Amino acid sequence: MNITNLNIEFFRSINDFGKQHPYLNPPLVFIAEYMVYLLCAVVVIYWFTRIDNYRMMVMSALFAFVLAEVIGKAAGKLHSNNQPFAELPDVNQLIEKAVDNSFPSDHTILFFTFCSSFWLFGKRLGSFWVILAFCVGVSRIWAGVHYPADILAGAIIGFISAYIAYLLVTRLRFAKKILAFYLKYENKIMPQSAKSKNF
């Protein structure tokens, strides 16, 4: 069995599960479509805790996401495939989506970039986020909009980008200067009595 057939076989095994157990479709669709809003809310909450370590984590995650998007676009130039619902018959498509290149998965890149960054900065709570990123990836296959290879590529790109950003951002004086500059003006607008935790 070649890689293409294996990719389709794995896709079918996950996507067909939704046909056999349709009661699981609504929560999986919610994860696939709307969990991104939870991630955005969490990023905002982390930032406004006014804890320097969390803010450095958010800065690292944002840098990682930009890097991951660049790598993802380059990967999409090297290989392309449309969504499974556009290429295969009898797909259990649960999400409306325009037909375009689905390799690698942008959703998976986003989640694995941010969630891997959370894990690198705090492995105990971060493990929850990595599991959530995995669930989002699986849900995109379940919903019929991505192949497993799209998800795997997105996860690898997201994690590698997060790790590179973690190594760079936590060591660059420039990143700390940006944070210090921001804090200077934030404290003028919203003074705080307690000191924030230094990174």
UniProtKB/TrEMBL annotation:
GO terms for molecular function: sphingosine-1-phosphate phosphatase activity; undecaprenyl-diphosphatase activity. SUPFAM superfamilies: Acid phosphatase/Vanadium-dependent haloperoxidase. This is Undecaprenyl-diphosphatase. GO terms for cellular component: plasma membrane. PANTHER family: AT30094P, SPHINGOSINE-1-PHOSPHATE PHOSPHOHYDROLASE. The chain crosses the membrane at residues 28-49, 128-145, 151-169. Residues 61-166 form the Phosphatidic acid phosphatase type 2/haloperoxidase domain. Keywords: Membrane, Transmembrane, Transmembrane helix. It comes from the Bacteria. InterPro entries: PAP2/HPO, PAP2/HPO_sf, UPP_Pase.
